[in-house]
Design brief:
2 helices
Amino acid sequence: NKISKVLHKLEVLKQTNAKISEQLEMQQQKNIQQQEEISTWVEKYESLKIANSLLGSDENNRETKLKINTLIRDIDHCIAQLSE
């Protein structure tokens, strides 16, 4: 009788463990999706900051100038390679 109770308890615990494992997997997938969404929003935010500074916002002016200078250097490098 005690053995059957222990076996029943074991079965209940196995089922509970399986449910919790499934919930954990679902939460991990949800976490991955949210991280990807956050990355997308961060990229959009950075683009908006640059756009605002191009429109005359003084807040991010230095950052935008640095980005433009980097792009110009990259373009100059590409042109130099094409000229060779």
